[in-house]
Specification:
nine-stranded antiparallel sheet; four-stranded mixed sheet; 16 strands; 39% strand
């Protein structure tokens, strides 16, 4: 019913449809459309292909909305409700943070050297494995890669010097067109005594997409000097890069190959 309502609106008003789940879209086009609901810090790449800067009409079934879609509706203008569908208008500049807010976050963020790997104070960062090289390099170098296997990206205890307790674990996974499916990120938090706690998500559920990659992330609670962390990625053609473990309430920024990254999100200032 939701797709029927969108197609009727498209036909009557001569508007193109943006729908990342249409089966005949290419994978790259789907990822561009998914990104519209992604993190507000990211510049939306789809805008470069739009013929004008007019607002986008949202056709909404509120019972099917996820958290990302609901955050967009908070900034949208309600038009009307027809049957079980609500219609909203959303200006393009509402899909991303204003430059002033983004610049302020960057100014207050902790800068780190993205060319290095390992723990840097409270932040762990590693672009990829130095032993593997793949064509699709997100950070300009090699990536982690395995075929039909599980890759262990990190397995160690937290440094005793860290005092934070809530961390975000994020990694970028390449959306390979050679198979149907997406990489799974699994994070195991193991106390010194007791059963490990497992956190899992799929990169295919992420709206944070960039150049054919999707960002998978989970939030974990630990006692740094008493807990051990194991981070693995699973996929049929498993390609990953850019592993970050950061305190949840702190911002970190770096620039790699002229691309700025804030909390493992690619950002661009002066996009307005």
């Amino acid at each position: 019913p939701l797709m029927e309502a969108a197609m009727e609106l498209s036909y009557c008003k001569h508007l193109p449809i943006i729908n990342g789940q249409m089966t005949r879209n290419s994978l790259q086009e789907q990822l561009l459309q998914y990104q519209l609901a992604g993190n507000l810090a990211m510049t939306k790449q789809l805008f470069a292909y739009l013929p004008n800067r007019k607002p986008i009409v949202l056709v909404v079934d509120t019972f099917l909305c996820g958290l990302e879609e609901r955050s967009l509706l908070a900034n949208a203008t309600f038009i009307q409700t027809i049957d079980q569908h609500a219609y909203y208008s959303l200006a393009l500049n509402k899909f991303q943070l204003p430059d002033s807010i983004l610049a302020e976050r960057v100014a207050h963020a902790t800068e780190f050297n993205g060319a290095k790997s390992g723990w840097m104070n409270a932040l762990f960062w590693q672009t990829a494995s130095a032993n593997n090289s793949t064509v699709e390099a997100l950070f300009g170098g090699g990536n982690w890669f395995k075929k039909r296997d599980t890759m262990v990206l990190y397995e160690a205890s937290f440094p005793a010097s860290i005092s934070d307790s809530m961390f975000e674990v994020s990694v970028w996974c390449y959306q390979d067109i050679r198979h149907f499916g997406s990489a799974n990120l699994q994070v195991f938090v193991s106390p010194s005594e007791g059963v490990p706690e497992k956190h899992e998500t799929s990169s295919g559920r992420s709206y944070d997409c960039f150049k054919g990659w999707s960002r998978a992330a989970v939030v974990v609670k630990v006692k740094p000097n008493k807990y051990r962390l194991k981070i693995v990625v699973q996929d049929e053609y498993c390609t990953a890069a850019g592993l970050m473990i950061r305190p949840l309430n702190r911002d970190f920024v770096t620039t790699i190959n002229k691309q700025m990254w804030l909390n493992n999100y690619p950002i661009q200032l002066n996009h307005e």
